[in-house]
Amino acid sequence: MFCSRSGILRIHDASQHRHNSVVSATLKATRSIPIVFTWVSDPVGSGFVTNLPHPGGNITGFHNFEPAIGGKWLAFLKQIAPDLRHVAVVHVPEIVPNVAFLHVIEAAARSLDVSVTAAGVRNAADIERVLSAFGQEGGGLIVTPSALTATRRDLIITLAARLRLPAIYSFGFYAESGGLMSYGINQLELVRSAASYVDRILRGTSPGDLPVQLPLRYELVINLRTAAALGLAVPNPLRLLADGVIE
Known about the structure:
Number of helices: 10
Helix content: 40-55%
Strand content: 15-25%
Shape: elongated
Number of strands: 11
Oligomer: single chain
Radius of gyration: 19 Å
């Protein structure tokens, strides 16, 4: 959380679950100081705003993921690993948007002839146990965004490599750390956009009149070294779609 000297609270945190808790606590503390949030997946369902076009009150901000992106994660994973028949969705069950992603992935999987395992995790021990068990069956991973998966990304990436599980992640830093591929928001762009809202509020606009913004675009990043280590050939159409390629 960042509190500017202007008296506007600008809240951002790379961890979705912790971030939602911070926003909730801040709203309980003040209903007068303007608040601009980023990296919140379900601001209406979380009770932060009444609706996206007219949030009302003293708060507005930037939505980071829509549930529909779950279908894109599965589609991209299927493109790079066309023989894939089984995926595990690594998620924290207590995070409402994580569960929404799971449901979208389950629905999309039916048309792609893919079965889905709900791989709920709450700590590092869960990650190692669940992924190791799933690795015996073979398949792929979809790793949803959370504080746990972000802070334990080295563990997840190491296990995915050892168990030879192609995986897709929600942020580019996973691919930069050795993950196979990622599809998600550009975090720096989102923070810059939040700064523009702070500027407008300082000029007199009420935060409740500023619509909560959905992401304008998502970025696909592919790690070719990891693909080669897994014996996967990246299709040219997928490579051309990529915003970033790690060689």
